Amino acid sequence: MQLATWNINSLTVRLPQVLDWLGAHPVDVLALQELKLSDDKFPVQAFADVGYQAQWHGQKTYNGVALLSRSAATEVVKNIPGFADEQARVLSASIAGVRVIGAYFPNGQAPGSDKFAYKMRWLDALHDWVRSEMAAHPHLVLLGDYNITFDDADVWDPVGLVGSIHCTDEERAQLQRLLDLGLHDALRLFAPAEKSFTWWDYREFAFRRNRGLRIDHILISKALAARARACVIDKTPRKNERPSDHAPVLLTLDAVP
DNA sequence: ATGCCTCAGCTCCTGAGA
Asked: Which of A102, A150, A182, A204 is most buried, by the most CB atoms less than 10 A from its CB?
């Protein structure tokens, strides 16, 4: 079984690249973030034509998440129950025996800002939602654009970016709280190379210079960690002519019975 | 230079991203 996550920064612009990528990587589940389109514009038929069912939770202009899958998605939940939110950021479903939570974490803009405060409230709510979901579903994966680095190894310039957004102690403490629920950082189960990033700024040739951050993650429960066989970042789509600023992350698991 | 790209939309600029 393979699952992947990809922030595609506008599904309207990136749909051909997503279809191409699925052709080369016929994963069982692909979580998408930053659809940037309203629900009525979701290209459900284009995915059906290449063998994928879809669940989506979008809004005009900003945010928006989807789960593409080869098999049926059940128990679909949009956003975080009990957390009133105008922003479409979370989509959960059970697929092939795995509880999948796809999420587009808030950016936070800058420490001390209103958006940072919203990010912290949202992270509190997510934590409680994931905890309850883990109690009900031992085989659980939380994947998406976290907009948080685990530590300095995830940062191209940890000295220059110390304390900046995605790198603050407060954000990293929230990420640690998710791990403390019993989740495991799938990429680091497999000793990734140094400077393994998932996002690079569009400016200043950041990708070519590998000036990036690792902010897209796949966290898996203990039962799934025992079945994990590989986790990789696919930098290939970042080399496309009109790329997303994020690269997909891909997890391979032994099948869940 | 709180900019440098890219995207959406109240589109010839601004807000937001990270």
From this structure: A102
A147: the nucleotide nearest its CA (via C1') is B18
Q: Which of A20, A28, A52, A104 is catalytic?
A: A104
Q: What is the 3-state secondary structure (H, E, C) of A85-117?
A: CCCCCEEEEEECCEEEEEEECCCCCCCCCHHHH
> Measured CA to C1', what is the nucleotide nearest A9?
B7
Q: Which domain holds residue A103?
A: 2-253
Whether the pTM exceeds 0.90: the reply is: yes
Residue found under tokens 């789509």: A237
- The C1' atom of B13 and the CA atom of A148 lie apart, in whole Å, by 31
Calculate the angstrom distance between C1' of B5 and CA of A204: 8
Average pLDDT, chain A: 97
Q: Which of A217, A131, A229 is nearest to A180 (CA)?
A: A131
pLDDT in tens, A190-247: 999 999 999 999 999 999 999 999 999 999 999 999 999 999 999 999 999 999 999 9
Instruction: State the average pLDDT over residues A35-54.
Output: 98
Specify whether the backbone of A247 is left (phi greater than 0), alpha (psi in -120 to 50) or beta. beta
Q: How many domains does chain A have?
A: 1
A153: helix, strand or coil? helix
Confirm whether A85 is a catalytic residue. no
Instruction: Give the 3-state secondary structure of residue A216.
Output: strand
CATH number at residue A8: 3.60.10.10
Straight-line distance from CA A142 to C1' B16, in Å?
A: 25
Residue A146 a catalytic site member: no
* Structure token digits, residue A137: 């579903």
